[in-house]
Design brief:
The complex is a heterodimer of chains A (435) and B (162). Chain A has 435 residues and is an alpha/beta fold. In chain A, 41% of the residues lie in helices and 12% in strands. In chain B, strand 4 and strand 5 form a beta hairpin. Classes of the chains: A alpha/beta (435), B alpha+beta (162).
């Protein structure tokens, strides 16, 4: 099982079963308060469940940080159409590797969160959309779902409560874009993963054009604790309007990379130095991407920062999906941005022109600079192309490419100028990679 | 077209997991699970999946061309996928990639003449905190070094001979 040494600074709510023997089994789950929150929710009205989730200040853990209770509240429960629960387990944002662990170590926590969401909106059927590369995780989820059926926690008349719910896994097949909610729904319907125009939002017209609750794995996994201990208790763990804990994925230049559950608002420098054990070989911090590769980069002097949605937004970046990518003083920012731009160009679905053309231009410009053929005007051109994409694409993938581009060339402009002048950098060994 | 009994059982379960009239939802899982058995998405498979899901072969083809894991040609027996995205890059994935091309003597999306290994540079595989990471077929290998990579390849070569 994939696991890292826990840090004493962690507050383990969603990860409290990690490391227990057979943590993924239903027996372990039931022996540690499992499914009690569902039984409690069954005694509540849908309005009361949604109010409890609203009180928790839980915000979507996939990246956008939208308040979960509010999202559930948008589902028209009087609609005669069937309602669906869809779990976004298409974890693909570079720097993010937490949903995999939540499903691997504690799949029943996810199932219980789904069941509670189903009670809140009156759904009878749900899907866990898991990226295709996570084949072994699909196996674990399928096993847990089978256990839950056998023991009467899924299927008809769950635990004699009269509530029916069916749940299935659904594999993706390699597409970052399918982590975008409307593209995920297209994919789940058997089509290419291209986004839909919104409104209508999935809460009203989601899977098969029916009302759908669609949340990230970690969001659903927070629900059992919220119902069990109360929304207020969960909210109190974090900062105002940013309830609870979150799983931060520390990667890059830290001594102890890993996935750590910390309270919302935890200081970023402490996260790097005290949780992550500092930077290897006594190097200095240069920059951090705080929430997955689509988030604007922060310079070292901007990192004395509370890691919650609002504080990181105020600092000009985003908390995103919790992928904290740490870069030391020897990191070549041209190489880093070049690699990130290659990613977005590869993953653009090609549906809308600003993204399809924009990501290609950004990749080509960065390739030219990286290969030593850049012109000084290229730095502004990267910024111009990116700014012309911002807010003009069908879905957030265009912004996801534009935001790191603008932040890198603005905050590290001198390094880009120097690279172009020297046609290389003392920090970079020229690599060509595959494409 | 006939498949193994296990795959047929999986298909049957798959088609039951979507609401009536929504068999198209099974297209992508069916293609991927069938590809695992056949090695690639063949013309015959496209037509079979189309028939079973009640869509046209063209609707299946447009899916095959979109998703990066679906492929028209079979890879090597051990398909080595190296992530070079940012978190892995910061931990030396560039050097690992260059080493892998030399060690295997092939480039991106190429297969060794004996059909044992193929190599592909892939995007983030969700192993960022255990970087650099690779997948061989569906198996993850974390925290790789050049030495660990060589050891892995030699072990796989042995299983390939058997």
């Amino acid at each position: 099982m994939l696991y890292n040494e826990p840090s004493p600074l962690e507050v383990k709510i969603l990860t409290r079963r990690f490391g227990l023997p057979n943590s993924a089994s239903i027996d372990t789950y039931l022996a540690t308060d499992g499914y009690k929150a569902f039984l409690k929710a069954r005694e509540m009205t849908p309005e009361q469940i949604i109010e409890e989730v609203k009180a928790s200040n839980l915000r979507g853990r996939g990246g956008a940080g939208f308040p979960t209770g509010m999202k559930w509240g948008f589902v028209p429960r009087q609609s005669p159409k069937p309602k669906y629960i869809v779990v976004n387990a298409d974890e693909g944002e570079p720097g993010t590797c937490k949903d995999r662990l939540l499903m691997e170590h504690d799949p029943h926590q996810l199932i219980e969160g789904i069941l509670i969401a189903a009670l809140a909106v009156g759904a009878r059927l749900g899907y866990v959309y898991i990226r295709g590369e996570y084949r072994y995780v699909i196996g674990i989820m399928d096993g847990a779902i089978a256990e839950a059926y056998e023991r009467g926690w899924l299927g008809k008349n769950i635990q004699g409560t009269g509530f029916d719910f069916d749940l299935y896994t659904h594999t993706g097949a390699g597409s970052y874009e399918c982590g975008e909610e409307s593209a995920l729904l297209e994919s789940l319907e058997g089509k290419r993963g291209v986004p839909r125009i919104r409104p209508p939002f999935p809460a009203v017209a989601g899977l098969y054009q029916c009302p759908t609750v669609l949340n990230n794995v970690e969001t659903f996994c927070a629900i059992p604790a919220i119902l069990r201990d109360g929304g207020a208790a969960f909210a109190a763990l974090g900062t105002p309007r940013n309830g609870g804990t979150r799983l931060f994925c520390l990667s890059g230049h830290v001594n102890k990379p890993g996935v750590y559950e910390l309270p919302m608002g935890f200081n970023l420098l402490r996260m790097i130095h005290e949780v992550g054990g500092g930077i290897p070989n006594g190097k200095k911090l240069k920059a951090v991407i705080p929430g997955g590769s689509s988030c604007p980069v922060l310079r070292a002097d901007e990192c004395d920062l509370a890691m919650d949605f609002d504080s990181v937004a105020k600092a000009g970046s985003m908390l995103g999906s919790g992928g904290v990518i740490v870069m030391d003083e020897d990191t070549c920012m041209v190489t880093a941005l070049w690699r990130i731009m290659r990613f977005y160009q590869h993953e653009s679905c090609g549906w809308c022109i600003p993204c399809r053309e924009g990501t290609t231009w950004l990749k080509n410009l960065m390739h030219r600079i990286h290969q030593g053929g850049g012109r000084s005007a290229d730095i502004d051109l990267v910024g111009d192309v990116a700014r012309n994409m911002l807010g003009r694409t069908f879905c957030p993938l265009g912004d996801a490419a534009a935001m790191p581009a603008i932040s890198f060339v603005t905050k590290f402009r001198e390094e880009f100028e120097d690279y172009i002048k020297r046609r290389s950098s003392p920090l970079a060994e020229l690599v060509t990679l595959g494409a | 077209m006939t498949f193994s009994p296990e795959l047929e059982a999986r298909f049957e379960k798959l088609l039951k997991s979507y609401p009536p009239g929504r068999a198209r939802s099974a297209v992508i899982p069916m293609l991927l699970y069938a590809q695992d058995e056949l090695g690639s998405v063949t013309r015959e498979l496209v037509e079979e999946v189309a028939r079973r899901c009640g869509v046209t072969p063209l609707q299946v083809d447009e899916v095959v061309s979109y998703y990066s894991m679906l492929r028209r040609k079979p890879p090597g027996k051990h398909h080595v996928q190296i992530c070079t995205n940012i978190s892995c890059l910061l931990r030396g994935a560039d050097k690992l990639w260059e080493h892998a091309t030399r060690k295997l003597g092939i480039g991106n999306k190429e297969t060794t003449p004996d059909g044992l290994f193929s190599l592909e540079e892939v995007e983030c595989i969700g192993a960022c905190s255990w970087a650099p990471a690779i997948q061989v077929n569906y198996d993850y290998y974390h925290g790789l070094t050049v030495e660990k990579f060589d050891e892995l390849i030699e072990n796989l070569r042995k299983t390939g001979v058997q």
